[in-house]
Design a protein that fits this description.
The protein is α/β, with parallel strands linked by helices. The chain folds into two domains: 2-87 and 280-297, NAD(P)-binding Rossmann-like Domain (Rossmann fold, 3-Layer(aba) Sandwich); 88-272, NAD(P)-binding Rossmann-like Domain (Rossmann fold, 3-Layer(aba) Sandwich). The protein has helices spanning 11-22, 69-72, 88-106, 109-117, 141-150, 179-184, 205-209, 233-242, 282-297, and strands at 2-6, 27-29, 41-45, 60-63, 82-83, 133-137, 156-161, 170-174, 188-191, 221-224, 247-250, 270-272. The strands form two sheets. The chain has a seven-stranded parallel sheet with strand order 8-7-6-9-10-11-12. It binds NADPH dihydro-nicotinamide-adenine-dinucleotide phosphate and oxalic acid.
């Protein structure tokens, strides 16, 4: 039996699609009459504190999110393997966001928009893409996809990950000891890290001050599409104000929804989207999780299992 525990998304729609795909395998929702001990899989997003109570026969927790930081903080998370969402459609959507914002900052969008508003004709040539280095923090599923889509556009690419990576066309940096060197040659910093104790608050004033300053007019840019817990918003406000950063694209926030009182809303060189960089699409999600259940019921090992020790 599969139990859905999805908050903030259209659970009824997911349930209908999963029932159609998995039939006759039973799919239940909170409030349906069922024996909790008979539940083998629970499909979760922002689960409530009681979400896992009584689920004594679980084989796996299926995470609607690619990021599992919220799930791992659940006070009564069962000791079952966690399978996260890994999906080509999700990766494509994330890369769409990354490419859009990187190209916007590379082409000095903030500067030319201000010129337009002032009716000012002022020719300033952006650097060539090859002269502009995009540094991607997090070279996992999403980081690698973003790199593969930025490469044909001609950008110089570098990445920072926990363990070394050998990816064609991307200069790899690995480990905390290489972080400064990685930042020193980066003009546009893209964050696609998971949120863990090591990465919390990594987008801070000190980090911004270490980025390369002489390439993009107005200063280096950041693009955060991972988690709000990675950024110190007071530091972003300060850095955008004093020129330490030329621009910031933020899809995620320390508190979501972003409070109306946040100063970020009013900053001209800050580009805000409401955590929509990449949504988990029901059609591909249903295919992915149904296949995982079918394969596991047939004796296959689970895939994309989270390493709880690492935190992602
Ligand atoms: P992966 O687990 O595939 O990749 C994580 C990458 O981060 C790996 O390269 C890993 O290194 C690296 N990493 C982890 N910890 C550290 C560290 N301490 N120092 C340096 N590098 C580190 O994750 P995904 O690519 O699938 O997803 C990344 C994040 O994107 C998710 O966790 C989620 O928070 C966010 N996300 C946001 C969405 C949105 O709509 N805004 C949608 C989907 C995801 P290594 O390879 O060495 O292990
Ligand atoms: C995710 C997200 O982690 O939507 O998938 O943020």
């Amino acid at each position: 039996m599969l139990l859905l525990h999805l908050s903030d998304v259209d659970e009824a729609n997911w349930a209908e699609k999963l029932r159609a795909e998995l039939s006759p395998y039973p799919v239940v929702r909170r409030g349906d009459g069922f024996d909790p001990a008979a539940v083998r899989y629970v499909f979760a997003w922002k689960p409530k504190p009681e979400a896992f109570d009584g689920l004594t026969g679980l084989k796996a927790v299926l995470s609607l999110g690619a990021g599992v930081d919220g799930l791992l903080k659940h006070p009564r998370l069962p000791d079952a393997p966690i399978v996260r969402f890994v999906d080509a459609d999700l990766s494509q959507r994330m890369s769409d966001y990354v490419v859009a914002h990187v190209t916007m900052h590379h082409r000095l969008y903030t500067r030319f928009r201000a010129d337009q508003q002032a009716r000012r004709w002022s020719q300033l040539y952006p650097p060539a893409a090859s002269e502009t280095t995009v540094g991607i923090m997090g070279m996992g599923v999403l980081g690698q996809d973003a790199a593969a889509r930025l490469r044909p556009l001609g950008f110089t690419l570098r990445s920072w990950s926990r363990t070394p990576k050998a990816i064609e066309g991307v200069e790899g940096f690995a480990g905390a000891e290489t972080f400064e060197a990685f930042l020193a040659g980066t003009d546009i910093l893209v964050n696609l890290l998971p949120l863990t104790p090591e990465t919390t608050g990594i987008l801070n004033y000190e980090t911004f001050g270490k980025l390369r300053r002489d390439r993009l007019d107005g200063g280096p840019a950041i693009v955060n599409a991972a988690r709000g817990g990675h950024q110190r918003e007071a530091d972003i406000v300060k850095a955008l104000g004093d020129g330490t950063l030329g621009a910031a694209s933020l899809d995620v926030f320390e508190t979501e929804p972003l409070p109306t009182s946040s100063p970020l809303w009013d900053i001209e060189n800050c580009y805000i989207t409401p955590h929509i960089a990449a949504i988990s699409d029901p059609a591909s999600g249903v295919r992915y999780f149904s296949q995982i259940i079918r394969d596991h019921e047939a004796g296959e090992p689970l895939i994309n299992v989270v390493d709880r020790q690492r935190g992602y």
